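Reader question, answered in our methods column.
A reader sent in the components of a multi-part assembly and asked whether the whole thing could be modeled at once rather than chain by chain. We filled in our standard form and ran it. Here is what they sent:
COMPLEX SIZE: two components
ENTRIES:
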Amino acid sequence: MTNTGDTSLLRARGLRKDYGKANAHLRAVDGVDLEVAAGETVAVMGPSGCGKSTLLHLLGGLERPTAGEVRLAGRRVDNVGERAVARLRRDAVGFVFQAFHLLDELTTIENVELPALLAGRSPRAARRRATSLLEQVGLADRAGFLPSALSGGQRQRVAIARALANDPLVVLADEPTGNLDSAATVEVLRLFDSLHAAGQTLVIVTHDSRIAATADRLISMRDGAFVDETRLTGGTGLSRSTGLSGSTGLSGSTGDAGAAGGGLGAFAGLEG
Amino acid sequence: MQQEVVLAMLAKEPSHGYELRARLRQALGPAGEDLNAGQVYVTLARLEKAGLVESGQSAGLPDRPDRKVYALTAGGQQRVAGWLAEVSWPRPDLAEFHLKLIAAATARLADPLTIVDAQRRELLRRLREAQRAAMAEPDDSRAALLLEGIVLRLQADLRWLEACERHWAVDKDRS
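And here is the structure of the entire assembly that came back:
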């Protein structure tokens, strides 16, 4: 395997995916270039059918592209053999899905330790890791429960813990809040926030603006291509206003001089 | 600062200006960060002039420069009662943005989708800010409820932008 020597952890070049054949084909992903730095959270937003889920599948080796390449930590993902790609999916990538995909007949902790067992870790090591992950997602007291006894937000937190079982280089999440109510969405937002703070690299495809707003960088996708990109955190040259309280970044204007409206005070209708 | 809000904050008991301000800031949380003492005192002075509040000196602490205690007059109480019963709600002004998109498209001045994208970036930044503030509030915080309202409104605006995006994308395909 060659190393490209670039600094991005995940990198896609000229990515394309067609379904069907000849003149009846659908181009789901149409010439995507993407670079994700280690520790970065990137959200890809777009209407349903824009190709964002397909893109995520290509990035994680769940599907193979029609053209283009994907590299994770410098290693090709898109053109390696079945066994290599299976190993990669298991060890280097953590997947989180809208519908959780937990195994109903296994307990919470058994679900979380499964990827480590499949990777050949000892039962003791796998259990130890699963225990600490359940603590991390705030569900240590639910270790012996079956998924059916958990709320939606709790199930998704278990699924996130499972995604982390083998210390993946990147977590790929497909509409992780798509099946959750508002309170459960906040549970997942908090959890992603803490993963981000701990340095986990995350790629989230979603049309939920709340989870998209937690990302460092936001990409809009239409008809299989990236059409807009913006950085939501520092480094844009947008002067975040002064007089901020701690890390919450409140009060005063939010940035762009030309943009109407001030900080939260203006939002709450307090000014004037 | 809306006069009725300050009046209503006085309804519980006569208070010093600084107590009023502290009460307001606690109720508003991060959204009240911009609220300065001047705004409260200016409003109190106006209310006093209008006969809605009256002030007296409190025995108070000698080191407090501000020893005035404000109380509602009968007229002030009436105004508060009227305000509580009144139904008012701010109307979001969506027409301006809507017309901007139409003007851009019909005069071929700009791509409406580019305008939608720029607007979305701004709203997502605001959403991020409000959401972070909401998550930082303790569970029993009343200010969190206000922040939730701000978050929900922004989500509604973002959903409308999605509808704008769908419409103008179809429009573009047709032309």
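What stands out: Residues 235-262 of chain A have pLDDT under 50 and may be disordered. The beta strands of chain A are 8-19, 26-37, 41-45, 67-72, 75-76, 93-96, 170-174, 201-206, 217-222, 225-231.
Send us your own complexes using the same form.
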